[in-house]
Amino acid sequence: EPEVTQTPSHQVTQMGQEVILRCVPISNHLYFYWYRQILGQKVEFLVSFYNNEISEKSEIFDDQFSVERPDGSNFTLKIRSTKLEDSAMYFCASGVGTDNQPQHFGDGTRLSIL
Amino acid sequence: GNSVTQMEGPVTLSEEAFLTINCTYTATGYPSLFWYVQYPGEGLQLLLKATKADDKGSNKGFEATYRKETTSFHLEKGSVQVSDSAVYFCAFISNFGNEKLTFGTGTRLTIIP
């Protein structure tokens, strides 16, 4: 069964540094998402992406965040200047965009900001 | 605003016990409802779904019925196994075209032999 793959599985970064989290969505999916889960808290929506542009973003997704689909297969989340509070598990998801076909999630990247 | 209220955990049960994890939602329109499961060290996997009122989603012995009148989608299983130990998330998509998932806080379930 096709999977969403995320790399790296764990990223440790100094505060203030830029970080890029990478995702390869399922190949025939058109909608792409990033969510995050701070330790012990619920999974929160960050951003959705369709047709090479952001379709929706949450208030968490401020100017420090950006997304890109650079080559038709990868989908990346960049945090320009990381803060301690960015430490979380980041999940990529992809879907076909209909509500009876659910989103498929990767295993996540654990981001630790020191 | 849109939200999911989910039974607080952790929940600890003996093997073969009956499981209920309560979930209620607040959403505009006619949401599609989901239960996702997160096994230790893994990502989120879809467990089951229901897309309209009175639909029952089922998978791996788990069931949940979409109750529009009570805005609920409680997860049940008649006889749990140790392998069911995981975190369970209730979630919804509010309507077609607004495709983001809104999640509950998750319920950690531990099954002891």
How would you summarize what this structure contains?
The complex is a heterodimer of chains A (114) and B (113). Chain A is mainly β and 114 residues long.
Question: Could you explain the architecture of this structure?
Answer:
The complex is a heterodimer of chains A (114) and B (113). Chain A is an all-beta fold and 114 residues long. Helix content of chain A is 0%, strand content 50%. In chain A, strands 2, 4, 5, 6, 9, 10 and 11 form a seven-stranded mixed beta sheet that branches. Chain A starts with a strand and ends with a strand. With 113 residues, chain B is mostly beta strands. In chain B, the strands form three sheets. In chain B, strands 2, 5, 6, 10, 11 and 12 form a six-stranded mixed beta sheet that branches. A four-stranded antiparallel beta sheet of chain B has the order 3-9-8-7, with no helix packed on it. Chain B has a two-stranded antiparallel sheet with strand order 1-4. The mean pLDDT of chain B is 92. Classes of the chains: A mainly beta (114), B mainly beta (113). Chain A binds chain B through residues 4, 6, 31, 33, 35, 41-45, 48, 55-56, 58, 91, 93, 95, 97-100, 102-108, and chain B through 31-32, 34, 36, 42-46, 49, 51, 89, 91, 93, 95-96, 98-106.
Q: Secondary structure elements and their pairing?
A:
The complex is a heterodimer of chains A (114) and B (113).
Chain A (H helix, E strand, L loop, with lengths): L4 E3 L2 E4 L5 E6 L6 E7 L5 E8 L2 E5 L7 E4 L6 E5 L8 E8 L8 E2 L3 E5 L1
Parallel strand pairs in A: 2-11
Antiparallel strand pairs in A: 1-3, 3-8, 4-5, 4-9, 5-6, 7-8, 9-10, 9-11
Chain B lengths: L2 E4 L4 E4 L4 E3 L1 E4 L5 E7 L5 E7 L5 E4 L2 E4 L9 E3 L8 E10 L2 E6 L3 E6 L1
Parallel strand pairs in B: 2-12
Antiparallel strand pairs in B: 1-4, 3-9, 5-6, 5-10, 7-8, 8-9, 10-11, 10-12
